[in-house]
C-alpha cells in the first residue's frame, strides 16, 4: 500500500472519530492490506489527533485474552496509542454521546517509573520498571461499522481504542501477584465475570513485555511516566445510559465508572 493510500485511510478514520460516524471495513475495500500497512494507517490517524492538540501518554495492548479473541474473531494481540483526551479517572461519568459503539473491558494498567526499551525485555524487567499498577476500564470503540473487524481493521483503527478510566488505588506489583490476583466485574450490581491475571498471556506483565519488545523492534521505547494498558481480563460489556461498572482486583482495590447519555451499544 503506498503512502498516499495509507494517509487517505488515516484521515478517513480521524474524520470518522471526529464526527462520530463509522466507515466500511478497510480490509473489505483493500483485500491485500498488510499488518504493516494497518499500523501505518494507525500512525496517520493518531498524527491527526496530535496535530489537533492531544499528547501521546501511553500505549494499549489489545486482543490478549481468549474470551475477547473469540468474541471478535481476532486471534493475535495488537497495540494502539493512548492520548491525553482519552484519560478519565475513577468515578468520572463517561458521556456516551462522545463515543460511537462502545463496549467496556476491565484490566490492569501499569504506570512506568523507568524507560523500557526492547527487544529483550522480560516480565521481570516490566515489574522492576513499574511505579504502580491500578485497576482500570478501557472503553473500546470501533470506527468500523457494526464491529465487522479483522486484525487489519482494528489495528488501523488504533486498536479500537475509545477512552480509559484509571482507578485511584495504587498497588506495587513487586508485592502483589498480578498473575494470580482475581478480578470481579460487576454491572449495575450484578456479577458479570470472574478472572485472574493469568488470563492475559499468562500474566499482564508478559503482555507488557511483549509490547515493549514489539515496539522496540520498531525503534519505539516506553518512557517513564507512560501508562500501559495490559489487555482485557473480562468479556466485552455493552454499556448504556445509567450503567455503572465496578471491577475489583484481589489485594489491590476497585475501579468504578458510570455512563450517561448516548444510546445502548
Task: Describe this structure as you would to a colleague.
With 265 residues, the protein is α+β, with helices and mostly antiparallel strands. It has helices spanning 3-19, 26-29, 35-51, 66-72, 123-129, 151-156, 204-216; strands at residues 56-62, 78-83, 87-89, 93-95, 102-112, 130-141, 161-166, 182-187, 190-196, 227-232, 237-238, 244-249, 253-260. Strands 1, 2, 3, 5, 6, 7, 10 and 11 form an eight-stranded mixed sheet that branches. Strands 4-13-12-8-9 form a five-stranded mixed sheet, with no helix packed on it. Helix 1 crosses helix 3 (35-51). The chain starts with a helix and ends in a 5-residue tail after the last strand. The mean pLDDT is 93.
Summary keywords:
alpha+beta; 7 helices; globular; 265 residues; 8-stranded mixed β-sheet; 31% strand; 5-stranded mixed β-sheet
Count, helices: 7
Radius of gyration: 17 Å
Helical content (DSSP H or I, runs of 4+)? 25-40%
Mean pLDDT: 93
- What is the N-to-C succession of helices and strands? HHHEHEEEEHEHEEEHEEEE
Annotation, overall tally of beta strands: 13
Percent of sequence in beta strands: 25-35%
Q: How far apart, in Å, are the first and last alpha carbons?
A: 33 Å
How is the biggest beta sheet arranged? 8 strands, mixed
Shape: globular
Which runs of at least 5 residues are low in confidence (pLDDT < 50)?
none
- Helical/strand content category: alpha+beta
Amino acid at each position: 500500500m503506498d503512502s498516499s493510500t495509507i494517509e487517505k485511510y488515516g484521515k478517513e478514520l480521524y474524520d470518522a472519530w471526529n464526527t462520530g460516524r463509522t466507515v466500511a471495513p478497510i480490509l473489505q475495500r483493500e483485500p491485500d492490506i498488510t499488518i504493516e500497512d494497518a499500523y501505518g494507517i494507525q500512525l496517520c490517524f493518531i498524527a491527526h489527533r496530535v496535530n489537533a492538540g492531544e499528547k501521546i501518554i501511553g500505549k494499549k495492548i489489545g486482543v490478549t485474552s481468549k474470551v475477547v479473541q473469540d468474541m471478535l474473531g481476532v486471534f493475535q494481540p495488537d497495540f494502539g496509542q493512548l492520548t491525553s483526551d482519552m484519560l478519565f479517572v475513577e468515578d468520572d461519568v463517561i458521556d456516551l454521546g462522545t463515543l460511537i459503539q462502545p463496549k467496556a473491558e476491565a484490566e490492569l494498567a501499569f504506570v512506568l517509573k523507568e524507560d523500557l526499551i526492547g527487544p529483550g525485555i522480560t516480565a521481570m524487567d516490566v515489574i522492576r520498571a513499574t511505579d504502580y499498577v491500578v485497576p482500570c476500564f478501557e472503553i473500546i470503540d470501533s470506527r468500523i461499522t457494526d464491529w465487522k473487524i479483522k486484525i487489519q481493521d482494528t489495528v488501523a483503527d488504533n486498536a479500537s481504542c475509545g477512552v480509559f478510566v484509571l482507578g485511584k488505588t495504587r498497588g506495587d506489583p513487586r508485592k502483589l501477584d498480578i498473575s494470580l490476583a482475581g478480578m470481579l466485574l460487576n454491572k449495575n450490581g450484578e456479577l458479570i465475570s470472574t478472572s485472574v491475571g493469568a488470563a492475559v498471556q499468562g500474566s499482564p506483565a508478559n503482555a507488557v513485555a511483549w509490547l515493549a519488545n514489539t515496539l522496540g523492534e520498531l525503534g519505539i521505547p516506553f518512557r517513564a511516566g507512560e501508562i500501559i494498558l495490559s489487555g482485557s481480563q473480562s468479556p466485552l460489556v455493552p454499556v448504556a445510559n445509567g450503567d455503572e461498572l465496578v471491577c475489583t482486583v484481589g489485594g489491590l482495590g476497585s475501579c468504578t465508572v458510570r455512563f450517561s447519555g448516548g444510546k445502548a451499544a
